[in-house]
Amino acid sequence: MSSPPKLVTLLPSTDCDLGRWLLEWYGIDYVESPHAPICHVIALKYHGYGKDAYPLLLTPKGNFPGVTPMVSRFDVDAAAGRKLLPDDPDLEREVRQDADYYRLTMGGGVVNWAYWHFLPHKWMNWPSFTTGVPWFEKLFVLFGYSILKSLMTKGIGLSDKNAAA
């Protein structure tokens, strides 16, 4: 018997939450490999992907870097009552555009606001950054939080202006 697919995740990511929900929705068993912020980049690069390819689903039949490839792959084989995309191509395009807008544009704004206000407080982020991650990632978050905070602030482009927007 083969092992279940592995889902490589960045813990405090709403896309990873969506990826978990998609796999449950489509009835796909998986094992999660959660990672703390910044550490997830190393895990993704280990598997040959860039820093934004999360959640990354690794399967014997192919890999799926992100929720859009996961939906595209699994919706095709889903039972009629489990399909998320309409059969009509124009309507499917509209659904995908709406989903991207809410997920990326609006969701990105929420991420900017939340991280700008919460990132300065390590104790507020500890559970969402470290639950289930490898021990050495917990150590990095514990002792390297200022580095993590600086890299995230720079990488996401956090600022008063972006948080206010």
Describe the structure.
By secondary structure, this protein is an alpha+beta fold. The chain has helices at residues 14-25, 39-46, 67-77, 89-118, 122-130, 135-143, 145-156, 160-164, and strands spanning 6-10, 31-35, 56-59, 62-65. The longest helix has 30 residues, at 89-118. The radius of gyration is 17 Å and the shape is globular. It starts with 5 loop residues before the first strand and ends with a helix.
Which characteristics define this entry?
alpha+beta; 8 helices
In a nutshell, what does this entry contain?
Helix content is 58%, strand content 11%.
Tell me the Rg in angstroms. Answer: 17 Å
For the record, give the distance between the C-alpha atoms at the N and C termini, rounded to a whole number: 50 Å
Mean pLDDT: 94
Strand content: 5-15%
Number of helices: 8
Strand line-up of the largest beta sheet = 2-1-3-4
- The helix fraction, in percent, is 55-70%
Number of DSSP-assigned strands: 4
Low-pLDDT segments = none
Note the run of SSEs as H and E: EHEHEEHHHHHH
Characterize the largest beta sheet: strand count, sense, and whether it forms a barrel: 4 strands, mixed
Name the structural class: alpha+beta
**What's the shape?**
globular
How would you summarize the topology of this molecule?
Blueprint: E1 6-10, H1 14-25, E2 31-35, H2 39-46, E3 56-59, E4 62-65, H3 67-77, H4 89-118, H5 122-130, H6 135-143, H7 145-156, H8 160-164
Parallel strand pairs: 1-2
Antiparallel strand pairs: 1-3, 3-4
